[in-house]
Amino acid sequence: MAENTYLIRGAAILGGEAEDLLIRDGIIAARGKDLHDDDATVIDGTGLVALPGMVDVHTHLREPGREDAETVETGTRAAALGGFTAVHAMANSNPVADTAGVVEQVHSLGRASGWVDVRPVGAVTVGLAGEQLAELGAMADSRAQVRMFSDDGICVHDPVLMRRALEYVKAFDGVVAQHAQEPRLTAGAQMNEGTVSAVLGLAGWPAVAEESIIARDVLLTQHVGSRLHVCHVSTAGSVEIVRWAKARGINVTAEVTPHHLLLTDELVRSYDPVYKVNPPLRTDADVQALREGLADGTIDVVGTDHAPHPSEHKECEWAQAAMGMTGLETALSVVQETMIETGLMTWADFARVTSFTPAVIGRVADQGRPLEEGEPANVILVDPAARWTVDPHKMATMGRNSPFKGKELPGSVVATFFKGHPTVLNGKLNTPYRYAGNYPTPDAAGAVSGS
Amino acid sequence: MKHLLSTENLSAFDAIRVLDTAEEMSAVGDREVKKLPALRGRTVVNLFFEDSTRTRISFEAAAKRLSADVINFAAKGSSVSKGESLKDTAQTLAAMGADAVVIRHWASGAPHRLAATDWIDAAVINAGDGTHEHPTQALLDAFTMRRHWSQLNGTKSSGADLRGMRVAIVGDVLHSRVARSNVWLLRTLGAEVTLVAPPTLLPIGVEHWPCKVSYNLDETLEAGVDAMMMLRVQGERMHASFFPSTREYSRRWGFDDARLRALDDLGMKDTIIMHPGPMNRGLEISSAAADSPRSTVLAQVRNGVSVRMAALYLLLSGDSREATAATAATTHAVSQPTKESN
Hints:
The complex is a heterodimer of chains A (about 450) and B (about 350). Chain A is an alpha/beta fold and about 450 residues long. Chain A has helices spanning about 70-80, 100-115, 135-140, 160-170, 195-200, 205-225, 235-245, 260, 285-295, 330-340, 345-360, 440-450, and strands spanning about 5-15, 20-25, 25-30, 40-45, 50, 55-60, 85-90, 115-120, 150, 175-180, 190, 205, 230, 250-255, 300, 380-390, 410-420, 420-425, 430. In chain A, the strands form four sheets. In chain A, strands 1, 2, 3, 4, 5, 16, 17, 18 and 19 form a nine-stranded mixed β-sheet that branches. A five-stranded parallel β-sheet of chain A has the order 9-10-13-14-15. Chain A is globular. A five-stranded parallel β-sheet of chain B has the order 7-6-5-8-9. Chain B has a four-stranded parallel β-sheet with strand order 2-1-3-4, with helices on both faces. The longest helix of chain B has 20 residues, at about 295-315. Chain A: It is an enzyme of class 3 (hydrolase).
């Protein structure tokens, strides 16, 4: 049997009719009924759903700088197990990914790991300081081919700087991914401002701090004719503003995290910092609005905002704790629970919000493609009937800060094919994809970028 | 009751049990020998991450009157200021055999973390956490109000609640753990609470609290009040635009001499004026009001020791039956603390 040939028998393609998929040499060689190949390793897809590999537009891999929290290796193992074939690594590493050198380092670490395609996100401003533009063009032209730029974790709050960033990225078809958080309205903020914060005596994080920035940014985007992506939308009001902007034809896309689709600020009553996250968990009304927004296309994609932290950053007082939750290994299950089990979306919709559209936003050419003959074989097999209980200690990520700990969730990833290679088989890590040759030299990269 | 973390979930039964036990404890304070053997051999740690000499010495006096060993752990100048975590501090105290931890912390919820984790198995008493709660302050306030209210009604304090009493809590509700603990406890005890504050110093969401809200102190006075509780206001709040100036605050929301006279003019001869201390004389309360016969400020301090004795006693002596047995076993003991609580 050829090592690079796999025949998936009878999987429901995007949740539709059961068909066979023949994967050979990194591409989908054939799709249809009763396919045959003597060399292929056969995988029984009965009862499974075949989907395009998930593309995360929002991942924190922590390397370089915080290798005690996560590395590219551990984070991408988690991604593969979670059904991803590409992740966008956020720029808030140390050093910050604000130069061609750092984004190339992250890109090269991703290739060396080989579990998923690692797409570095470049910082908008030098050191995330919000004062001067980073060399966006150099990062775009680097071997990492950066197209998404974000100061995620910090809002580009200066309106002039945001305008310039939106204008500048037009030169190389880039997108500015904004972390919408008005800093003055959220100084010292600890949780969503509302009924629960009033009782708990934790400084409030008003919805308006997010919504006012989104409103400003969509107007700036319209004014300069650029492209805006709004990270982790968390309030009903934000959904309304994005809906309004799209109706006006503004080129804006929006993302929601799995945790904001399921959890509310009622959980903060425990003062357990595992529920501390930025933006904060909101109310049930916000959760419902986010689900409706994702279902009707107002919100374009699911992004995990996977944010691992060492345990000492969570085993402390709420106010001292770091913000963030892990999410790569639970994303599929949480979206199934909140969007598919509720009847709001189909698996085809799932493919749109977790793969097709994220790849378009990030300009990742060979990801998020249809499961058709001749397309790159980034494919996952999902068992929608599985149920499992979340145990953070059994995860591949180094972060143990999963807010879903102890929760029973539906759906499991049975196999992940990355570039035609099974990185995950039978729900377990298999082997990474190995790139031919070393990290491309600048000359070779020049040839690539000229394409 | 394993811990005393907040008044939000304190039942009327438990609240009245604490107050009734405190009545028994206060009798001890009137004796020449102000000491009971109830907690002999038990260790109480005062774990203070925030300076508060008043609360700390109140708990210290309470624990010592019950013959407990007291360890004071001030976070400043200790290993905590060198970066030791709450977890390590708690585990250290557990290893030293602390039976109860009285914790004051600048972070809301820190006492809940001690109680909810497996870092330490001791009873946890919240001595004020951030802007969340200060349950023993609310209990001593309720104790003070109940004595006054019972006396007016010609009934015994023990076993009574505060049904029908009108209480106004005035000032910086937003940042006040005292206000929060009082709102929940006074609701439980049947009092009618009105919060009076500038809109900037009320939390978003206050409309769901079991109380009335007013922006006008004079209207609240005219409507009739049995207890005025003035909250401490930090003058620095004006720099964050919570109010324009301390003078304007004082004019609109301070209990000044004119409002003190208004109590007489309105015929409210029995209305008391309360303050958790320390007071900003001339800001939220005038000297004449603070020193008037209506003022219960010093009674509150005195009652604080009794209430904290009751809390320590009830948490460390187990259930009421054990408490009764323990008290019966010694000649210097308080009489049965729950006898009149039904």
